[in-house]
Write a structure and sequence with these properties.
The chain is of the alpha/beta class. 26% of the residues lie in helices and 21% in strands. Strands 1, 2, 5, 6, 7, 8 and 23 form a 7-stranded mixed beta sheet that branches. It has a 5-stranded parallel beta sheet with strand order 10-19-11-12-15. The chain has a 3-stranded antiparallel beta sheet with strand order 16-17-18, with no helix packed on it. Helix 1 (18-29) crosses helix 8 and helix 5 (213-220) crosses helix 7 (282-307).
Length: 423
């Protein structure tokens, strides 16, 4: 879409991913004039930052973008990369959002009662702003990476595509979240020697007692629990459970991989003299992942009992393998390591926001996307309101709530703001 920038909008949306597009969808429904600024291209993370064998971790039925539910014939399957992109592309076409791609926002501030948005396409003012830039702006790579030998290839998960792009030799994957575990599996299945550096990520069964665990959890009501429930406020900083939808879906069990030749380590503590150093917490990391795995299954067991559901019998996972030692180091040259993949997450970039809306951790202070500054909203963050807030499942519901609030704000405040900008 080719746009000519206006000097003022009722709303400016910053970010053209699924959250920003969902906001645009509801803004159009309300008849609210707006523009969407996107630093790269619309939905670029789905298209440009996923590996070749990528597929959904949650079943297809959880794809619930606004007025665009999953429209295929396999609701309990897991779309592969090209299918996901096609689904998102259909949503992009349906929304037809007023997007300016390749537009970087450098400053958002409030001046004379309106919001001033400076961007590479020009400066505009707005009555309201929606920050939909997520917490995943740029790859997070530890400074220790600078101490790796120069002959070792280093890439982040956003740049990994397939095992063939890596030089021959062993590969270290640092980080055992969803991406790290799935990429380690991808390399393992291709016959590559993998050294897996674990963290505190939990894991989850794919299927249990005859059904996908996600289906059970939906019935239990886990996806309806809000961040305001007791003990849930810290969830927004948690690492996602690891499992996969590959080949119809299955568990990811690092202990099984260890039996098949994958080497496992505790948390990386540093790099020195051509060696990667580790904390002695491999066993603790594996045990904690399994504790969560069994805890989720136990929750399902209790639900089945309470409801009197006829289901296959319960079971408890018991470890297939235990680490014989806690490895303290990995000699990279001696083990033939030629590549390191950093599965160490992302850093948010709120540097453009000149408004006091953040807590001490850099997370916006808000309640379901509504901040303490009138007319300022956030969308697409993990646990913004529920488990699905940062995902295809519930980002649309949050966007609807935010835009409904925004519309009400405009009805009450717009006359004053119009006067402030001389309109």
């Amino acid at each position: 879409m080719t746009l000519s920038l206006k000097p003022h909008y009722s709303a400016v949306v910053i970010g053209g991913g699924q959250a920003g597009l969902s906001a645009s969808h509801y803004l159009k429904k309300h008849g609210i004039d707006h523009v969407v600024f996107e630093k790269k291209t619309v939905a670029h993370k789905w298209k440009d930052e996923r590996w070749d064998a990528f597929c959904l971790v949650t079943p297809n039925w959880q794809c619930q973008l606004p007025d665009h539910p999953y429209d295929g014939d396999d609701p309990h399957g897991f779309m592969i990369k090209d299918e996901i992109i096609a689904y998102v592309d259909r949503f992009i076409k349906k929304v037809d959002a007023p997007v300016l791609e390749g537009t970087t926002v450098s400053l958002l501030e409030k001046v004379d009662g309106v919001f001033k948005v400076e961007s590479s396409a020009g400066t505009v003012t707005a009555d309201c702003v929606v920050l939909a830039t997520s917490l995943y702006s740029g790859p997070s790579i530890p400074r220790a990476a600078e101490r790796l030998p120069d002959d070792i290839l280093q890439i982040h998960t956003v740049d990994y595509r397939n095992p063939r792009q890596l030089p021959a030799g062993s590969v270290v994957v640092v980080g055992s979240g969803q991406s790290g575990c799935q990429i380690a599996e991808d390399l393992h299945l291709a016959g590559r020697k993998v050294h897996m550096v674990t963290g505190n990520a939990p894991r989850c069964a794919r299927f249990y007692r005859g059904r996908d665990v996600v289906d059970w959890l939906a019935d239990v009501g886990q996806y309806d629990i809000t961040v305001e429930h007791d003990g849930m406020t810290k969830k927004k900083h948690d690492t996602n459970h690891y499992l996969t939808g590959r080949d119809g879906g299955r568990d990811i069990d690092l202990r099984k991989f260890a039996l098949e030749g994958m080497s496992l380590y505790g948390r990386m503590d540093g790099i020195s003299g051509g060696k990667m150093l580790f904390a002695p917490n491999l066993k603790a990391n594996l045990d904690n992942a399994d504790r969560v795995y069994n805890g989720i299954n136990g929750l399902i067991d209790r639900y089945i009992t309470e409801k009197g559901i006829d289901a296959p019998p319960a079971s408890v996972y018991t470890p297939l393998w235990e680490p014989p030692i806690e490895p303290s180091e990995l000699d990279l040259a001696a083990e033939g390591v030629t590549s390191v993949i950093w599965a160490t997450g992302f850093d948010p970039d709120w540097s453009y926001v000149g408004l006091p809306i953040f807590d001490g951790t850099g997370y916006p202070v808000q309640r379901r996307g509504v901040t303490g500054i009138g007319g300022v909203y956030v969308l697409g963050l993990p646990w913004l309101w529920t488990w699905g807030s940062g995902r295809l499942l519930a980002v649309g519901k949050d966007a609807e709530h935010v835009v409904d609030h925004l519309a009400g704000y405009l009805e009450g405040s717009q006359p004053i703001l119009r006067q402030a900008v001389g309109r």
